Amino acid sequence: MLGLWTFYAVMLISFCGLYAGLAIGYIAKEELKPGKKYLQYLHDVVLTFFIGVMLYYFDIPMLITVLLAVPIFVLLQLVKDNNTIKPFVYIVMGVMLFLSETVAFRFFLMTGITIFLYGLPVGSLYLERNIEKKPSLNITDVALLHSIFLVVTVMVKFWGVVLTFT
């Protein structure tokens, strides 16, 4: 198991992908509308990669991992507006970040990096939908909408530590 500070540092850095996506969106405001389909595609690719990596590292054979990841990617492409699932995806990612720590350090880092990369298109797509709002409101809204990731991850880690000492 990792130290608490290492775990929480990776968790916070992973969450900052949302704000990096917002920052990129503010830097390139005029590119948000024409780039929306590419951002959505990047979102789906990173989410599919995340699912594939999770399956692979939990000893699911590579063939089954690919056979599951491809239909998931196709399904994500067919769903036009999947904004309602993004907070739920962050709940799963928070739990997976905790579970990945028990497998191997490199897997834990890969999970954290993938969560950061997932946040880039999510933050930019959020800004594309809410460009008329003030930047301070967008920053607050993103924090409120996706902070469930932080809450779930802290709770799961806390209970993991408590159960370790009992």
Question: How are the secondary structure elements laid out?
Answer:
Elements: H1 4-27, H2 36-57, H3 62-78, H4 86-103, H5 105-129, H6 135-146, H7 148-165
Helix pairs in contact: 1-5, 1-7, 2-3, 2-5, 4-5, 4-7
Defining key terms:
166 residues; globular; mainly alpha; 7 helices
Describe this structure in words.
The protein has 166 residues and is an all-alpha fold. The chain has one domain. It is built from 7 helices and no strands. Helix 1 (4-27) runs parallel beside helix 5 (105-129), helix 2 (36-57) runs antiparallel to helix 5 and helix 4 (86-103) packs antiparallel against helix 5 (105-129). The chain starts with a helix and ends with a helix. The model has no long low-confidence stretch (mean pLDDT 86).
DSSP, total strands:
0
Order of helices and strands: HHHHHHH
Strand content: under 5%
What is the distance, rounded to the nearest whole angstrom, between the alpha carbons of the first and last residues? Answer: 16 Å
**Structural class, please?**
mainly alpha
Provide the domain count: 1
Q: Note poorly predicted spans.
A: none
> Radius of gyration in whole Å, from Cα?
16 Å
- Helix count, per DSSP? 7
The helix content, as a percent range, equals: over 70%
**CA-based shape:** globular
Kindly state the mean pLDDT as a whole number? 86
Q: What would a concise description of this structure say?
A:
With 166 residues, the chain is mainly alpha-helical.
